[in-house]
Amino acid sequence: MKELKTTQLFALFISCVALIGIIAFGGYWTHSINKAAINQQTSVLGSLSRSQAAFLERRLSNAFSATKILAQEIQHHDGKEYWFEEYAVDLLDSMDGIAMLQIEPNGVIEKISPLKGNEAAIGLDILAGSKHKDEALLAIKNHQYINIGPIKLVQGGLGIIGRSPVFLYKGTQKEVFWGFTSAVIYLDSLLNATQLTEFEKEGYRYKLTRVDSETNELITLLESAKPLTETQATSNLVVPAGEWSLSISKPMKAELFNNTITGNIISFIVALIISVSLYLILMQPQKLRALVKEKTKELEELAYTDPLTDLPNRRYLQESLPGILYNNHKHQRMAAFIYFDLDDFKRINDTIGHDVGDQILVIVANRLNKFKQESHLIVRLGGDEFAILLNDIKSYEEVVDYADRILDSTRAPITLDNKKFSVQTTLGIAMVPKHGRDLITIMQNADMAMYQAKLEGKNKYSFFRNSMRSDAYSLIQDEYDLAQGIKENEFELYYQPQFDLETNQICAAEALIRWNHPEKGLVFPDHFIPLAESSGKIVELGYWILENGIASQARRKQQGEPEIVLHINLSPKQISDPNIVHLVQELLLKYRVSPNTIGFEITETLILEEIDLAKKVLQIFKNMGMCIAIDDFGTGYSSLAQLKNLPVSLLKIDRSFVMDLENDADDKKIVEAIIAMTHKLHLKVLAEGIETEEQHRMLNDLQCDFGQGYYVSKPVTEEEFRKLVHAHNNKNAYVNA
Ligand code: C2E
Ligand code: CA
Ligand code: CA
User: Fold this and answer.
1) Contact at 8 Å (CB) between 633 and 654?
2) CA geometry: angle at 563 spanning 619 and 497, to 5°?
3) Where are the beta strands (DSSP E) in 20-157?
4) Which helix H or strand E contains 574, and what residues bound it?
């Protein structure tokens, strides 16, 4: 902000300097232009005055010459005048501009040519009381030609008289003054000799003056109607007598004024444009910088925000957390870092579509935002992963309370396009600083806590414990081991017989997987199936189970063994695999095994979670003639009523009901009810975990169709199973018989 102001002031200063400078220069420039115009005008006026003066000179020198010629003639005729009339006519003819010629013996006008109209002047004594007596006397005295006028001529009009004194016997002792010879020029004709009147019409002004030889007074002879203006040129006339000068001017004031105004306006506009442009140019980098800053901020905001949910993103957490942690440390505050993702979100994405997945994420984020407090930070880390930092908390109860609210808010059903979705989340919580002081440790520990919570059954939260760290390490090891085991083909299917309770004949078997671990020996599925499911390896392992189960049926057929139905356990993840139907069909074809001899066992939890999908897939299998069994019935929430709508053929009563059948009257009632209801639905029923003869007998009495349990056999290898079927069925065939 401060920087902006400084630049603005600087730009303003420079622009003002430029403005003043340019205006000053403009003023100077206008002045120069005016000066040049004046100079040009003066030079034009100069040449005009010179040319006009030349005309005047000629007229005046004509007058001079005429008086001189007459004077010579008088001298030549010894003062006699009889020749004058004739001579004067010739002279006037040959000399332009002379109005009349006069001879004035002793200063008295005696003869005038032409006489007509000028008679009034005859007899005028110049030396007697005339206005120009003194000048005449001076001329005599100085033997000098003089000009007189302008005078009002006796015969009328204004004129100039050129007058030469005439002396007889010149240059001798007897030299005497004879009189004057004069030539009269009308002022009008003098003016007409020039172009001054035309010029006047064009706006020029002029003034013809001469200095009076006696008084030194400046006498104006000709003058324009309007007075001379400042810009003028004067030419001195080269004439025989006196100092004559012609001045010509033309008014320039308006032109100069216009020039000044135009010049100043132009320079002001130019100055304004340049200084404003300069200001803008100078401010431009600042503006650009401001723009860059603004854009950078926008980009930063983008970089720190998750575009889908508008929540801060992982990067924001990474960059802001150290500061928050430092402040907490300084003020000895406690915080909780909650890390979580949505359970089985991948399945929604894969099966229903990413659009719906995205919408669910937005809804979850909005719900979280609703009970967010000022000091809390909610972050979307990516995918379906979120993190919440509860800053400045006072107790664990506060965290527990908050964790419950997260679980509740996500659990609330989501309706999209008239479809109801239910998502769940599992939270891992790390306390700060107890479980970590830096981002990595805190996140790792919260992640571990979440993982633990998932292992413990999802849709819950778990606080980090130090013991989790070692669990996590062994888990990583186990996962690696499992992958290795699949790769090295260390698994084997065992077969547990399922028998008809009435006839005690083995008619089916359940395939149960075992891991021949190179170090641990035989490992049971409870130790690796949950890991295979949580790590996603179950899909690969499940395929192995399917192929080997179906292959074993093919071998039995090839070896001519009695036909039995093989029940294979299908994990929920396998049902969600969009390829499952295709895979099963391919395997049946490949091993030429009839679908009637294969069954699937599915836990009821799966069916409840994804009822629509499960229904669809199972229906296809059932239509193919496969047996679909509900496993572990009674342990979950499914009701018998729901079974009605499911493509199921067999129900497996969970071992927990069979275990105490002999002693627990309630269990007996439940089993009895399940069997009755199942039959009402036209389904078959199998009791799991029959270990005693009594259980076997009771279940048979209760009309249970099939049984499975240690009473007949534990799960055994393929080879052992083959033998077992023969031995058992033969023995019981005998009993039955
Ligand atoms: P489950 O599907 O309920 O399998 C029956 C389990 O009960 C088997 O344990 C079997 O050995 C045991 N059992 C059978 N009769 C008796 C009895 O009379 N008394 C007692 N105490 N137990 C009996 P197992 O083989 O350890 O399998 C455990 C679980 O592992 C299975 O429970 C099943 O959920 C899972 N599992 C086993 N094999 C597979 C498989 O191939 N695929 C999948 N997805 N899961 C499998
Ligand atoms: Ca089973
Ligand atoms: Ca079971």
Assistant:
1) yes
2) 85
3) 100-105, 111-113, 146-152
4) helix 572-576
Provide the 10 A C-beta neighbour count for residue 685.
27
In this predicted structure, the answer to whether residue 637 has a pLDDT above a threshold of 60 is no
Write the CB contacts of 99 (distance below 8 Å, at least 6 apart in sequence): 159, 184, 185, 186, 189
Nearest alpha carbon to residue 496 among 605, 640, 631: 631
Q: Which two tokens stand for residue 448?
A: 């571990």
Higher-confidence position of 510 and 734: 510
Q: Is the CB of 548 under 6 A from ligand 1?
A: no
E strands, 142-231, where? 146-152, 158-168, 176-186, 205-211, 218-223
With a cut of 90, say whether residue 377 has pLDDT above it: yes
Residue 695 has pLDDT above 60, yes or no: yes
At 232 the three-state DSSP class reads strand
User: Does residue 150 have a cis peptide bond before it, meaning omega lies within 30 degrees of 0?
Assistant: yes
pLDDT at 570: 94
Residue 636 is predicted with a pLDDT of 59
Q: 137-140 — which CB contacts under 8 Å span 24+ positions?
A: 138/213, 138/214, 139/163, 139/164, 139/165, 139/180, 140/165, 140/177
Name the residue with the closest Cα to ligand 1, atom 27.
525
List CB-based neighbours of ion ligand 3 within 5 Å: 631-632, 688
What is the DSSP secondary-structure string of 378-438?
EEEEETTEEEEEEEEE--HHHHHHHHHHHHHHHHS-EEETTEEE---EEEEEEEETTT-SS
Other C-beta atoms within 10 Å of 615: how many?
Answer: 15
CA distance 435 to 335: 10
Tell me, in angstroms, the distance from the centre of ligand 2 to residue 706's CA. 14
Backbone angles phi, psi at 440, to 5 degrees: -65, -50
Query: Which residue of 498, 523, 567, 569 sits with most ligand 1 atoms within 8 Å of its CB, as the best mutation to test the pocket?
Result: 569
SS3 assignment for 675-716: HHHHHHCCCEEEECCCCCHHHHHHHHHCCCCEEECCCCCCCE
Encode pLDDT of 229-251 as tens digits.
988 999 998 877 778 899 999 99
Interstrand relation of 218-223 and 205-211 (parallel, antiparallel or unpaired): antiparallel
**Predicted confidence (pLDDT) at residue 558 exceeds the cutoff of 90:** yes
pTM comes to 0.48
Taking only the tens place, the pLDDT of each residue in 643-669 is: 777 899 999 999 989 999 999 998 899
pLDDT band for position 430 (cuts 50, 70, 90): very high
Above pLDDT 90, what percent of the chain?
A: 47
The pLDDT assigned to 640 comes to 64
Residues 6+ apart with CB under 8 A from 580: 574, 617
pLDDT at residue number 155: 67
Mean pLDDT: which of 24-33, 170-179, 268-277, 488-497 is highest?
A: 488-497
Which ligand 1 atom is nearest residue 494's CA?
25
3-state secondary structure of 25: helix
Cα dist from 549 to 106, 584, 595, 729, whole Å? 173, 11, 12, 22
Looking at ligand 1, which atom is closest to the CA of residue 715? Answer: 11
The preferred substitution site among 492, 506, 512, 632 for testing ligand 1, maximizing ligand atoms within 8 Å of CB, is 512
Q: CB of 632 closer than 6 A to ligand 1?
A: yes
User: Which residues are registered as beta bridge partners of 628?
Assistant: 600
d(CA 400, CA 395) in angstroms, rounded, equals: 9
Q: Of 672, 671, 677, give the one whose Cα is nearest residue 656.
A: 671
What tokens were used for 235? 């030419």
User: What's the pLDDT score for residue 359?
Assistant: 93
Q: Are strands 598-603 and 627-633 parallel, antiparallel or unpaired?
A: parallel
Q: How far apart are alpha carbons 89 and 100 in whole angstroms?
A: 9
